Amino acid sequence: MLFSACNKSDKPCNTSTEITNNGHLVDISMLQTAAPQFLDSLNKYPMLQVAQIRTGDGNVRMDCNVYHQGVRMFFTTYGLLKSPNSSQVSVVGNNVTDFNLNIALQPSITGLQAVDITKNEIAFGVNCIDYTLGVIDLNSILGQSGVDYKLVWHVGSITGGMFAYIDAQTGAVLYSFNGFIE
Cα 22 vs. chain centroid, distance in angstroms? Predict the structure, then answer.
């Protein structure tokens, strides 16, 4: 789920958009002629959401967000690359079928509660704020070994730079960045 809220109000902006695992973010019709093999992958893996299609020098690349049971898997991407001189398609990114999630996928706190928690961590000023429910591997963010999946709210400025990951079960701030590298 993706929502937007301005920091002047606790109500979502009128332009709020919910993104589900079956709604692509770009028009995929050009794939019918440029890379029909990509459409086969999209049919095989309905958990993919096309985020970007790039073309140039005869290459076609498709980058996808990955969902698990309707929840976005942050930092998990899947892409396909087709070269002009080959009918072969290369896979770029993660395995999209092997998630061993032992966590609840229903949040205990709302997105607006996560926004309030984040506002105590980060001074957003007049920036509008996006918040998205998803799953992260906390260990990969912290540079640690092993896997530690958490259901989180990603709360950030729509202009980028400032963001936080809020545990969607406990409300704990798992990671935040205020936009400045110190």
Answer: 14
CB 108 within 8 A of CB 169: yes
Rounded CA separation 72/54 (Å): 22
Q: How far is CA 79 from the centre of its chain?
A: 14
Segments of the chain with pLDDT less than 70 = 1-22, 95, 97-98, 126, 179-182
Tens digit of each residue's pLDDT (9 = 90 or more) over 85-108: 777 888 887 767 667 788 989 999
Three-state DSSP at 14 gives coil
Supply 47's token pair: 């958990």
Q: 């993706």: which residue's tokens?
A: 2
pTM given for the model: 0.76
Closest CA to 76 of 137, 130, 22: 137
Residue 155 burial (C-beta neighbours within 10 Å; 0-12, 13-18, 19+):
buried
Measured CA to CA, the distance from residue 179 to residue 182 in angstroms comes to: 10
Helices and strands (H, E) in the chain, number of each type? 4, 9
> From residue 108, how far is each of 95, 101, 145 by CA, in Å?
28, 17, 27
The values of phi and psi at residue 125, to 5°, are 65, -130
Tell me the C-alpha distance between 74 and 59, whole Å.
26
